[in-house]
């Protein structure tokens, strides 16, 4: 990922060098762009509406995603299990070493 002049991070590729990106420094727009790039165009607006930046994303629980974003259950489950949880795990592994 590359830092842009406006301070956001380029999130066009959800996977970088075989690893998920670390969203700790993402702004709200980066989170929205990440979910748009991973096929959740419609649901990405929920992250915008709730002003979820990278640090907030890393703090989200399963319940936050399922109920706090007001998105349908099916997409919410996929977003949490296949994106939020793995991003959190990757962040913890990266920062533990």
Automatic annotation (TrEMBL):
* Domain (SAM): residue spans on this chain: 26-74
A single GO BP term for this record reads: negative regulation of DNA-templated transcription
Pfam families in the record:
SAM_1 (PF00536)
Write down the superkingdom of origin: Eukaryota
Entry's Gene Ontology molecular function annotations: chromatin binding; histone binding
Tell me which InterPro entries the record gives: PcG_chromatin_remod_factors (IPR050548), SAM (IPR001660), SAM/pointed_sf (IPR013761)
One GO cellular component, as annotated: nucleus
Residue numbers spanned by region Disordered:
1-24
Please identify the protein, giving its name as recorded: Sterile alpha motif domain-containing protein 13
């Amino acid at each position: 990922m590359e830092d842009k002049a406006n301070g956001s991070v380029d999130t066009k590729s959800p996977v970088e060098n075989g690893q998920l990106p670390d969203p700790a420094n993402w702004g709200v727009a980066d989170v929205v762009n990440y979910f748009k790039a991973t096929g959740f165009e419609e649901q990405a607006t929920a992250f915008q509406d709730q002003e979820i930046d990278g640090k907030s994303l890393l703090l989200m629980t399963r319940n936050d995603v399922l109920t706090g974003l007001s998105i349908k259950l099916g997409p919410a489950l996929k977003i949490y299990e296949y994106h939020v949880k793995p991003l959190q795990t990757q962040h913890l592994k990266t920062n533990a070493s």
